[in-house]
Write a structure and sequence with these properties.
Number of helices of chain A: 33
GO cellular component, one term (chain B): cytosol
Organism (chain B): Cardamine amara subsp. amara
Radius of gyration of chain A: 72 Å
Strand content of chain A: 15-25%
Number of strands of chain A: 35
Helix content of chain B: over 70%
Function (chain B): Functions as a two-component phosphorelay mediators between cytokinin sensor histidine kinases and response regulators (B-type ARRs). Plays an important role in propagating cytokinin signal transduction.
Radius of gyration of chain B: 18 Å
Structural class of chain B: mainly alpha
Keywords (chain B): Acetylation, Cytokinin signaling pathway, Cytoplasm, Nucleus, Phosphoprotein, Two-component regulatory system
Oligomer: heterodimer
Largest interface: A-B, 20 and 22 residues
Main location (chain B): cytoplasm
Distance between the termini of chain B: 30 Å
Shape of chain A: rod-shaped
Chain lengths: ~1150, ~160
C-alpha cells in the first residue's frame, strides 16, 4: 500500500496509464464475449423464427386445402344425377320443378357447408336453393312469364326446410343473364369451372366459391356454392404473429387483407403492390411468383419477409402473400445487443479514465495523511531531544553550581577554623559553640551538595567505577561499627549476619569500595533513621553469578575427595549446584555478592516501593521530621546498577515490620584458587577453608577470613562433630539482649561446629549454667579425654617461625578438654549481679575446665583482672571470630594465659598480614613486644583494645613497628602512637623529602611539615639530586637486606625546576624503585590549579597526588590519607 | 614603660594591618608567622632573607636576559625566572610581587618586550619597597622585644 502510494506520488502518469490499460483490456475482453454470445443467440432466434414462419405458411396452405375438399367432385356427382333425371331434351319449367328440384334440395341438405345449389338451363331457366341468413329460399326463373326465351322473371320463394316444397309468397326480382357469364360459358366449354362470385340471391347473397359443372348434353350447368366467409373467417382468426396476410383471386378480388399496410395496398397485374395506386414507380411490388421460402422486401422503410404462394380452394386458385415485419425476433435481439455493446464500449473507454483518477485521489489522500503523521513524529522526536538536552544542561548547571557552592562552603569552613583558632574565641564560649554548630551545618550542607553532585554526575554518565582492591568483610564491619553506636543510642541493635561466611571466603575483592560503602552507608543510615525499636540486620553472602544456593548438600555417605570427584563426574551435565563449589573455585573470578539491609522500622508502603528509587521522592508519611533530599535511594540504585547489580525491596512475611532492601553487586575476587594444603598448613592469610565432614555428607564452608584467621579445623573437631552428642567439647553460652543478634550469633557459632546454649533472660543464667555444667564436670572431662584422642594433633598456632611460643599451648592442650565461653551482654541485666553469677560459677568449676567471659557493652575493667574480655563494639565478623579462636577447636589456649597469647598472636598476625612476611620484621616486632610485655599496664590496655582490632589499630601497630626500627632515637614518637595520636601531628615520625629549587619555598615547606610532626625533612634542590638520593638509599638498603623500608615516607616534588623537572624526576624514581619492588609516594607540589592540565600531567608522570603550593594542611591530610589507604590495601 | 610598650604594640599592629591593607602581604605571610615558634625564633626573618636574596638574583638574571645589547632576548629564560619569583613570593606572601609576577609572566608568554621591561622595573621597585616596609616592621618588633613586651598577633580580616 505504502509502495503504491510512493509510486503514485513519484510517477502519477505511469500509474495512471498502467491502471487505465488494465481496465481497458478488461473492457475489451468483455465486449468480445458479449459480441460472440449475442451473435449465437441472434442466430438461434433467427432460425427459430424462420421455422415458425414457414410452419405458419404451411398452416395456411393446409387450411386452404382442407376447408372445402372435393367440392368439385360433389358438383360432378350432382350433375350426373341430374343428367340421369333429364331424359328429355326439352324440359320445361315444370319438369325442372318436378324432376330436378328434389335432387337439388337433396344436395342442398346433404352436402356439407354448401350454401347454394342451383341448376341453370342453357335457356336461362333456373332453379336454385340457397341459404339467405339462415333461411333456405328458392330462386327460380319461370319460363311462363317469358316463353319466347328472352327475358325470364326471377322469383324468390321460401322453402320448407324438410321437404323442399315451395311455400309462402314469391317475390319477383330482376333476372341475371347467367348464360352470358364467363363461367357459364367456360363450364359449357370445359365441362367444369370454378369462380368466386356473389350468389344468385341478389342483395341477400354473399360471396361464394362456386363450382360449376355442365351437363353432359350441354343443356345446362349445375353449380354448388360455398361461402368464402368461412375461409376468410378461419384465416382471420388464425394468429399470424405480427404477420400480414393478403389473399386475392386472379381477377383481383381481394379476399383477405389483414395487416397494417392497408391504405397503400393494391393489386396490380397479379402482383401485390404497396404505395399509391396511381404511381407505380414509387410503389413497391412483390412478384407473384415468389417462393414460399421468404423473400425480403422493403416497404415504407421497414423490411418485411414475404412468403407468397397459390392456394386452390374448391378449384379456385387464390394468390396469397404473408409478410412478416423484420422487427421482432432476432432483429430485435440484434438491435438491443448492439445498444448494449455501445454502452459497454462507452464504459470501457470511460472507466480507464475515471477509475484510476478516483483511485489516485484516495492514494494521494493516504499519502498526505502519512506525510502529516511523519512530520508530527519528527516534531515529537525533536521535542524529546530538546527536552533531553535541556535536562542535561540543567544537570550540568546544577553540577557547576554545586561545585561552586562547595567551594564557597569550604571557604566558610576555613574562615571559621581561622576564627576559632583566634585567641579571642575561648573554647567553650558561646561563640565557639555557635561556630561549631555552623561547621556542623556546613558539613550537612556539603553532604547534601555531594548527593546532588553525585546525582548529576550519574545523570550525565560521568560516574565511573574506580577499581581497587579491598577487603569486603572489613568494609562491612567498618560500616556497622560506625552505625552501631548511633543505633544503640536509640536502642536499636545493628547485627551483621554473614550467613554461611561465604563473604570471608571471597573477602579480598577488586571493585569500587568507595561506592559500595556509599550504598551501604546510605541504606544503613536510612535504616537507622527510620527504625525506632528492634534491630537492623545486615546480611551478606557471596554466590556465583546467577546461582541461588551456596550450601551444597551431598546425599552420598561416602564423602571425601572421591565422592566429590564422582559427583562432579556424574553431574557434569545435570545438577549445576552440586558442582558449584568446584566451579566457583576453579573458574569464576567474578562473584556476585548479595547484601540485605533489613530493619524493623516503619516500612515502606507497597505502592511507594517502586517510586522510592526515583529521585526526589520521599515517603511522606514516614519522612516527617526527617531531613533529606530524597536523592539517596536514587543514587543508590544508580550506583548498584553501575556495579552490575540490581536493588529491590523484598517482601517480608506477613506481620513482620520494616523494610528489607536487597541488592547484589558483581566484584572480582582475588581468591583465585581453592585453598591449598600449603595454605592451610601455613595459615597465612585470609581465606576460606574447605571442610568436608564425610559422615554427615554435609559440606560446610567455614571460611573464616579477614585479617583474623581462624585455623583450619583440627581433626579433633571433626571427631567432635561426628561423635555422639554426649561427648563434651567446648560450649558457648550466649546471653544477649537482642533477639536477632542472639539468633544470628547462635547460628554462626553453630555453623562453626561449636555447641551453643542460649539463655534468654539474665535471671535464668545461673540455672542454665548449673544445668549445663553443674553435674560432675570431672566425668565429662574424662570422657572427653578418651573420645578426643586426636587432640594431640592439634596444629600449631600462629606462624612456624615462633616455635617457642606455640609449643606452650600445644603441650597444655593435651591436658585440657572443655572450655566454656560466656558471651554476656552487660545491658541484659544489672552488671554487678551478672558478675556475681559468673564469679560463683567460675569458683564452682573444677580445675581443668576453663571459663572465659566476654562482656559486651561493658567498659568497666572489673572483669579484665580475671582475664575476662570486654568489648564495646558489636560482636560480629572478625571480632566474633577472634573470640571463637580462643576455643581449643580453633587452636585456642588455656584461658588464663589467653589474653596475652591472644594479643601476641594478633599482633603477629597484623604485622604479617599488612606487610609481607619477612623474618626480619617479625624479629623486630617480637623484640618490641617483649620490651613492652611485662606490665600490668599492658593487660589493661588489651582489655580495651584487643577486642576491637580494627584497621585503625592494626595500622597503629604497624606504625609502631616501623618507628621502632628507626635508627633515630625518638622513642617519644613511638610512645605517641600508643596514645591517641594528635591530629595536628598526623605526620609524626615520617621521613619526607622536599624537592624544590626555590629555597624560600623549600624552607617554608620544611617548616610546615615539621609542624605537622615530620621527623626528618630532606631538602633537595633539583630533580637529579632527588633521583640520586633515592637510588643511593635503595642500593644501600639492598646491601643491608631490607629493601622493604622506604627511604622516605613521602616525597614532595616541585614540578617546574631548571634541569630535571618534577615529572622527569618522578619517572626516574619510578624506574629505579621498580627494581626493588617498592613504591614511594610522591606528591606533586605546584603553583598550578588542581584540575588543570599540569595537575593531570603529574598523575600521568606517576605521582600519587597533587597539592597546591601553599601546602594547606587539610588538603595535605586528605592526600596522605588517600595514599595511606591505597598502600595498606 | 607599660604605656610605651602598649603604644609600640599599637603601632606595630596598625603598621602590619596597613601592610595587609595596602596589599603588600597576604595570608601566606600570616601562615609563615604561625610557623615561627620558640624552636626557631627567626624563621620568618630567615625566609624573608632568602626571598630577598632570590629577588636580587632573579631580577639580575632577568635584566641580563632582557638586555638587548647582548643580542636576542631569551624569553624562556625570563619566563623561568619569573615563575621562580612567583613561587617564592607566593610562599612568603608577598602579594604585590606575586601579582606583578603573574602579569609579567603573561607578557613573557606573549613575548612582549616592552611589557616585560616595564614589569621588571616595577618588580624591582616593588620588592625594594616591601623590603623597607618589612624592615620597618621588624624594627618595631625588635623595639617591642627590647622594651620587654610581647609581639602581638595581628588578625587580618
Amino acid at each position: 500500500m505504502v509502495n503504491v502510494a510512493k509510486l503514485m506520488t513519484s510517477r502519477p502518469i505511469v500509474v495512471f496509464c498502467v491502471l487505465g490499460f488494465m481496465v481497458f483490456i478488461l473492457g475489451i475482453i468483455s465486449i468480445m464475449i458479449w459480441i460472440t454470445t449475442t451473435e449465437t443467440v441472434t442466430n438461434d432466434v433467427a432460425s427459430f423464427t424462420e421455422d415458425l414462419r414457414s410452419s405458419l405458411v404451411y398452416e395456411i396452405e393446409n387450411i386452404g386445402k382442407y376447408i372445402y375438399p372435393k367440392t368439385n367432385l360433389s358438383t360432378i356427382v350432382l350433375s350426373r344425377v341430374i343428367d340421369s333425371h333429364l331424359t328429355n331434351n326439352d324440359n320445361g319449367f315444370t319438369e325442372i320443378q318436378a324432376q330436378i328440384a328434389p335432387v337439388l334440395f337433396q344436395a342442398y341438405s346433404t352436402i356439407p357447408h354448401v350454401s347454394q345449389v342451383s341448376y341453370i338451363d342453357s335457356d336461362g331457366l333456373l332453379f336454385s336453393y340457397m341459404a339467405v341468413s339462415n333461411i333456405s329460399v328458392a330462386v327460380f326463373a319461370n319460363s311462363s312469364s317469358n316463353p319466347s326465351g328472352g327475358e325470364y322473371t326471377w322469383y324468390t320463394q321460401t322453402v320448407d326446410q324438410i321437404t323442399g316444397h315451395l311455400i309462402g309468397n314469391t317475390t319477383k326480382s330482376q333476372p341475371l343473364y347467367l348464360t352470358l357469364t364467363d363461367w357459364f360459358q367456360a363450364a359449357q366449354r370445359n365441362y367444369t369451372s370454378a369462380f368466386v362470385g356473389t350468389g344468385l340471391g341478389k342483395e341477400y347473397s354473399e360471396t361464394l366459391f362456386q363450382s360449376v359443372v355442365s351437363l353432359s348434353n350441354k343443356k345446362g350447368v349445375v353449380s354448388l356454392g360455398f361461402p368464402v366467409k368461412v375461409l376468410t373467417d378461419f384465416l382471420n382468426s388464425s394468429y399470424l404473429q405480427d404477420g400480414e396476410l393478403y389473399m386475392w383471386t386472379k381477377d383481383g378480388t381481394v379476399l383477405v387483407r389483414q395487416g397494417s399496410l392497408n391504405a397503400s395496398f393494391f393489386i396490380s397485374s397479379d402482383s401485390i403492390c404497396f404505395g399509391k395506386e396511381s404511381n407505380l414507380v414509387g410503389s413497391q411490388c412483390i412478384p407473384n411468383n415468389c417462393s414460399s421460402s421468404g423473400y425480403w422486401v422493403e416497404i415504407e422503410r421497414s423490411k418485411f419477409q414475404v412468403f407468397c404462394s397459390v392456394l386452390e380452394v374448391s378449384g379456385v386458385p387464390l394468390i396469397y402473400t404473408v409478410m412478416f415485419p423484420n422487427k421482432g425476433g432476432a432483429t430485435r435481439i440484434e438491435h438491443n445487443a448492439r445498444k448494449v455493446l455501445y454502452l459497454l464500449i462507452v464504459v470501457t473507454i470511460l472507466l480507464p479514465l475515471g477509475w484510476p483518477l478516483v483511485f489516485m485521489m484516495f492514494m494521494g489522500q493516504a499519502a498526505r495523511r502519512e506525510m502529516h503523521m511523519r512530520a508530527t513524529l519528527i516534531n515529537h522526536k525533536e521535542a524529546i531531544q530538546q527536552a533531553e538536552r535541556k535536562s542535561m544542561n540543567k544537570s550540568q548547571a546544577i553540577a557547576r553550581a554545586s561545585h561552586d557552592i562547595r567551594g564557597s562552603l569550604a571557604g566558610i569552613t576555613g574562615l571559621i577554623d581561622i576564627s576559632r583558632e583566634n585567641e579571642d574565641v575561648k573554647s567553650g564560649s558561646e561563640l565557639d559553640t555557635n561556630l561549631k554548630q555552623v561547621i556542623v551545618c556546613i558539613k550537612d550542607l556539603v553532604g547534601l551538595l555531594n548527593s546532588v553532585l553525585d546525582m548529576s554526575k550519574i545523570e550525565s554518565g560521568k560516574m565511573q567505577l574506580e577499581e581497587e582492591e579491598f577487603n569486603l568483610a572489613k568494609l562491612l564491619e567498618d560500616i556497622i561499627d560506625f552505625y552501631h553506636p548511633v543505633a544503640m543510642k536509640k536502642g536499636v541493635d545493628v547485627v551483621l549476619d554473614l550467613h554461611d561466611g561465604s563473604i570471608f571466603k571471597f573477602s579480598n575483592v577488586k571493585g569500587d569500595s568507595g561506592k559500595l560503602k556509599q550504598i551501604l552507608n546510605n541504606l544503613v543510615s536510612n535504616a537507622v533513621k527510620f527504625t525506632v525499636e528492634g534491630h537492623i540486620s545486615i546480611r551478606a553472602w557471596a554466590q556465583r553469578p546467577g546461582s541461588k544456593s551456596s550450601v551444597v548438600l551431598v546425599s552420598d555417605a561416602q564423602g571425601g575427595v572421591v565422592s566429590k570427584f564422582l559427583k562432579s563426574m556424574f553431574n557434569k551435565n545435570g545438577d549445576q549446584s552440586s558442582t558449584y563449589e568446584m566451579e566457583i573455585s576453579n573458574n569464576a573470578n567474578t562473584i556476585e555478592f548479595v547484601f540485605e539491609v533489613d530493619d524493623t522500622g516503619k516500612g515502606i508502603p507497597m505502592e511507594m516501593r517502586k517510586s522510592v528509587f526515583e529521585n526526589y521522592v520521599q515517603v511522606r508519611e514516614t519522612a516527617q521530621g526527617q531531613q533529606g533530599t530524597g536523592l539517596g535511594l536514587g543514587i543508590v540504585q544508580s550506583l548498584v546498577r553501575l556495579m552490575g547489580g540490581e536493588i529491590r525491596i523484598t517482601d517480608k512475611a506477613m506481620g513482620e515490620k520494616g523494610t528489607c532492601f536487597q541488592f547484589n553487586v558483581l566484584l572480582t575476587t582475588l581468591e583465585n584458587s581453592p585453598v591449598s594444603d600449603m595454605k592451610v598448613r601455613h595459615d597465612m592469610e585470609a581465606g576460606g577453608d574447605y571442610i568436608s565432614t564425610p559422615n554427615l555428607g554435609l559440606t560446610i564452608n567455614t571460611s573464616l577470613g579477614g585479617s583474623m584467621n581462624i585455623r583450619n579445623l583440627s581433626p579433633r573437631f571433626n571427631t567432635c562433630l561426628s561423635s555422639s552428642p554426649k561427648q563434651e567439647c567446648s560450649r558457648v553460652v550466649l546471653l544477649l539482649k537482642n533477639e536477632e543478634r542472639r539468633r544470628v550469633t547462635e547460628k554462626y557459632i553453630k555453623s562453626q561446629g561449636i555447641k551453643v546454649t542460649v539463655v534468654e533472660k539474665w535471671e535464668h543464667l545461673s540455672n542454665a549454667l548449673e544445668r549445663l555444667f553443674g553435674f560432675s564436670p570431672q566425668t565429662s572431662m574424662g570422657r572427653n579425654e578418651l573420645s578426643c584422642p586426636s587432640s594431640r594433633e592439634l596444629p600449631l598456632i600462629g606462624i612456624d617461625g615462633i616455635d617457642s611460643r606455640s609449643q606452650i599451648p600445644r603441650r597444655r592442650s593435651n591436658s585440657f578438654s572443655g572450655v566454656i565461653l560466656l558471651l554476656i551482654d552487660a545491658k541484659v541485666g544489672p552488671y554487678s549481679e551478672l558478675y556475681d553469677i559468673v564469679e560463683r560459677f567460675r569458683r564452682g568449676l573444677r580445675r581443668g575446665i576453663s571459663c572465659k567471659v566476654v562482656w559486651l557493652n561493658e567498659s568497666s575493667t572489673r572483669g579484665s583482672e580475671r582475664g575476662d574480655i570486654s568489648c564495646l563494639r558489636p560482636l560480629h565478623g572478625s571480632r566474633l571470630n577472634q573470640v571463637l579462636k580462643m576455643l581449643p577447636e580453633f587452636g585456642g589456649t588455656e584461658i588464663k594465659e589467653a589474653p596475652i597469647e591472644l594479643h601476641r598472636e594478633s599482633l603477629l598476625r597484623h604485622s604479617i598480614v599488612t606487610e609481607t612476611s619477612s623474618p626480619k620484621h617479625i624479629r623486630c616486632t617480637n623484640t618490641e613486644i617483649q620490651e613492652e610485655e611485662p606490665s600490668s599496664r599492658f593487660n589493661k590496655k588489651i582489655g580495651k583494645t584487643i577486642m576491637a582490632p580494627t584497621s585503625l589499630e592494626s595500622e597503629t601497630w604497624v606504625k609502631s613497628v616501623r618507628t621502632g626500627r628507626k635508627p633515630i632515637g625518638n622513642r617519644e614518637d613511638e610512645q605517641g602512637t600508643c596514645k591517641p595520636s594528635d591530629e595536628y601531628e598526623f605526620l609524626r615520625g615520617k621521613r619526607v623529602m622536599v624537592v624544590d629549587d626555590n629555597r624560600t619555598m623549600s624552607l617554608v615547606a620544611t617548616r610546615k611539615l615539621k609542624k605537622m610532626g615530620v621527623s626528618e625533612v630532606k631538602q633537595c634542590e633539583s630533580g637529579e639530586e632527588a633521583v640520586r638520593l633515592v637510588s643511593e638509599w635503595l642500593t644501600q638498603r639492598e646491601e643491608q637486606g631490607s629493601i622493604y623500608t622506604l627511604p622516605f615516607d613521602y616525597i614532595f616534588m616541585d614540578c617546574q625546576m631548571p634541569g630535571m623537572d618534577g615529572y622527569e624526576a618522578t619517572r626516574e624514581i619510578r624506574k629505579v624503585e621498580k627494581h626493588y619492588g617498592v613504591h614511594i609516594p610522591i606528591i606533586a607540589v605546584s603553583g598550578h590549579d588542581p584540575g588543570s592540565r599540569e595537575a593531570k600531567e603529574t598523575i600521568q608522570a606517576g605521582m600519587d597526588a597533587f597539592l597546591e603550593k601553599n601546602l594547606n594542611q587539610d588538603q595535605l591530610e586528605n592526600v596522605i590519607r588517600e595514599i595511606e589507604s591505597k598502600m595498606t590495601l | 614603660m607599660n604605656a610605651g610598650i602598649a603604644q609600640l604594640q599599637m603601632q606595630f599592629r596598625d603598621y602590619t594591618i596597613s601592610l595587609y591593607q595596602q596589599g603588600f602581604l597576604d595570608d601566606q605571610f600570616t601562615e609563615l608567622k604561625k610557623l615561627q615558634d620558640d624552636g626557631s625564633p627567626d624563621f620568618v626573618a630567615e625566609v624573608l632573607l632568602l626571598f630577598f636574596e632570590d629577588c636580587v638574583k632573579l631580577i639580575g638574571n632577568m635584566a641580563r636576559a632582557l638586555d638587548k645589547s647582548t643580542g636576542t632576548v631569551d624569553f624562556s629564560q625570563v619566563g623561568a625566572s619569573v615563575h621562580q619569583l612567583k613561587g617564592s613570593s607566593s610562599s612568603v606572601g608577598a602579594k604585590r610581587v606575586k601579582g606583578l609576577c603573574v602579569t609579567f609572566k603573561e607578557y613573557c608568554e606573549a613575548q612582549n618586550y616592552e611589557g616585560c621591561v616595564r614589569c621588571l622595573q616595577q618588580v624591582d621597585i616593588e620588592y625594594k619597597t616591601l623590603k623597607t616596609k618589612l624592615q620597618d616592621m621588624f624594627n618595631l618588633e625588635k623595639q617591642i622585644v627590647q622594651a620587654g613586651g610581647v609581639v602581638p598577633q595581628v588578625d587580618i580580616d
